[in-house]
Each structure stands twice: as structure tokens, then as C-alpha cells.
Amino acid sequence: MRASGPCRRLGWEVWRLPSPGCAAGAALVSVASALFGCAVNLNPDASPSPPPPSAAVLASCLPLEARAAALEGRVGALALPDGMPLFTAENATIDGRTAPTGFESADATACLGNAEPLAARPLIDVSALGPALEPGTVAHPLGGVTTDAAYLFFTAAQGLGSGGIGIARFDDAAGRFVAVSMLWTADRPSYGSAALVDGDYVYVFGGLAARFLDADAYVARAPLDSVTEPAAYEYWAGGGDYAPNADEAAPLVAAGTTPSVAYDAVHSRFLLAYVTPLASEISVRSGLAVTGPWSLPVTLGRCDLPAVDPDSFCGDVTLVPALAGGTDIAVTQAVASFSRVASAAPSDYWTRLLTASWPESLP
After folding, report:
1. Pick from 69-73, 134-138, 232-236: least confident
2. H/E element holding 273?
């Protein structure tokens, strides 16, 4: 059900998740993850400009019901073979049960409001990787793509650190994703924060912090039938060239540490959405192709942040084309904070789902 009244402002429509049958969560972003990185930008004006005074400050509504408790951790979204969006979060609490990485399918036509939640359970089974991962490793979902099967990229969290980025394949019998291989070490860009098919390749995007409170986006690709093979990936090295060595990867454009990319068929453009480290607004760029050229950044709007927590800032954002109607842009926006306020309501930190019209200043 769409928000109305005070929950609609300046063309934005915003929801807080979860509503009945929604699994999504507020991501906590660490100082370390906000400040990694290096590189250069193709555009003369690399840094997103501050939002103008008229930029919309997003409003939110509480869900009508809340059978699924607020989930915590990075939120992810991908399209399954049946066309339904799949939302993920690192920790699920549903009907009093808690498990790593809960998930559920959601009915886009009902504003994520009517689907019954699945039982809380691990979304990604990493046991098949055995000695490749330390005991107790938890898989945190990133972006997904469907070729011959549905694949989900993930980060392997080991305590407070990361064991790198891997990929899992959806197993119909198990009803979840099963890890197939590890692809990148933790010092690489966050390849897999977005993934899409273009022609004969799967393209994966990632970010790496660069300069002060800034980051750069990178892109790698692999043939459709080789997405689980580390050696199959090649890395954009600038000027339309790709290199087989990850060390030769060149920054694509200035963006966030976890850029989200999707194709917009209405405008015949690739859309890049991101938040820079510790930002309070969402930025977007449009591109003519997977590698650009990309437009200058445009502020889509200010993040919806809880007034009770002055130290909160934008968490990860994820484009969700399946939920965008007409010329709208649909994106989930998490809430991050260095220290959650004890008196805050759980809903203050729920991930927001919002839609906005394509900005007039965006090519």
C-alpha cells in the first residue's frame, strides 16, 4: 500500500520496511568500510554537489502491521527467475525466531504488503566451501543476477573482518543459495554490489573508498556461462579496454563504496545510484553503456533519517527496477548510525523503500 498524505512530499513516495511480508533491514556502516579506497574519475567534476535548498527531505510512514520484526544488516535486492523481487538482510527476527540472513519474496503490486514471510533461515549456505572459509563465517548478500540460474554475490564476514567476496547459486531443492566459489579478496572493490546482464557478459560493479569521504566505482565482467570462475573475470582498464589482471582495474567514475546499477528501459539509460561515505543524500548518474560515458552526479533527494538520532547517515542504497512504475526510480535506503539511540523506536532504523521521478537535470 502506498504512502499518502504527509508521507508524500515533492514527488517522493516512501515506505519503511518491513511491512507485512517484507524482509529488509537497516545497514550499519562502519568507519572502516566508509573510508577505504583509491583512484581517478573520468568526469571533470567528480564529486556530487551538495543538495540544493529545495532538495526533498524524504518523509516516511510506519507500516500498517509489523509481523516481521525489523531486520538488521546490509539490505539487498534481486529478481528471481519468477520475476519477484527478493529482499535480504543480515539478521532476521520473525515471530520471535532469529537467524542469520533472513529473506522472503515480496509482492510488488501490493507495496510489499501482503506476502507471508518465509521462516527465518540462512539465505546462503557456505558449507560447501569448507576449508576455503573460517569456521563461523557468515555470508552477507550483495547483488544478484540470473543467467542459466539465479546467482547471488556475497561477502564472507569473519568476525569484524571480511574473508572476501564469493558467489552462490540458487538451489531449488534447498530453497536457498548455495555457495559455489570465492572470487575476490577483501582488499578489492566490492564487486557484486550490483550485477547485470548486457549482451554475452555479466557485469559486476563494486566500490572502493578514495580521497576524503569519497569513493570510486569499478566494473568487471565474465561470460554468461562462467560467472562462478574467478579466472573468467576481466576488469575495465579504461578506454574501452579490459584486462585479465584485477590489479589493472581502473576506476569507472566517482561513486559510493557499494554502487547500485540498473538499466532503465524507459530512458534507454543505465542508472547508477549511490551514497558517498557518511552522506545525507542519494546521488544518481545516467550512462549510455555499462562503462559510460556517465553523466555528472545529480542529487536524487536527501535520505530519510530518524530525527531522534543526529548521528545517523545514509546506509547502502539498492535500485529495485521491479518496483518502479512508469518513469519512476525505485530504491531502498538503509539507515546507518555510529551509535543507535536507546530511546528510538525500532522503526526509526528500518530500511526505507522510496520512489522518485527521473530528475529533469539527469540526461
Report:
1. 69-73
2. strand 269-274
DSSP class of residue 339? Answer: S
DSSP state of 349: G
Tens-digit pLDDT profile for residues 156-209 = 887 666 789 999 998 888 878 899 999 999 999 999 999 999 999 999 999 999
**CA–CA dist 279, 281 (Å, integer):** 6
Sign of CA dihedral 190, 195, 198, 202: positive
Greater confidence (261 vs 172) lies with 261
Under a CB-based contact definition with an 8 Å cutoff, are residues 271 and 23 in contact?
Answer: no
CA distance 285 to 292: 10
State residue 132's pLDDT score: 75
In tens, the pLDDT along 109-124 reads 333 433 444 455 678 8
Write out the three cell numbers for 8: 508524500
Residue 312 has pLDDT above 90, yes or no: yes
Peptide bond into 306 cis (omega under 30): no
All 3 cell numbers of residue 43? 568526469
Q: How far apart are alpha carbons 281 and 300 in whole angstroms?
A: 7
Label residue 57 exposed, middle or buried (CB < 10 Å: 0-12, 13-18, 19+): middle
Dihedrals phi, psi of 349, to nearest 5 degrees? -110, 10
In the block, cell 579496454 appears at 241
Cα 133 to chain centroid distance, Å, stands at 24
Domains in the chain (CATH in brackets) are 5-357 (2.115.10.20)
Assessment of whether the complete model's pTM goes beyond 0.85: no
What is the C-alpha radius of gyration for the chain, rounded to an integer number of angstroms? Answer: 19
Instruction: For residue 111, give the C-alpha cell.
Output: 507495496
Q: Whole-angstrom Cα distance, residue 313 to residue 336?
A: 5
Residue 97's SS3 state is strand
User: What phi and psi, each to the nearest 5 degrees, are found at residue 307?
Assistant: -65, -25
What does each C-alpha distance from 306 to 16, 55, 283, 314 come to in angstroms?
11, 17, 20, 11
Tell me the C-alpha distance between 352 and 21, whole Å.
15
Task: Kindly compute the dihedral angle of the four CA atoms of residues 47, 235, 196, 303, in this order, to the nearest 10 degrees.
Answer: -20
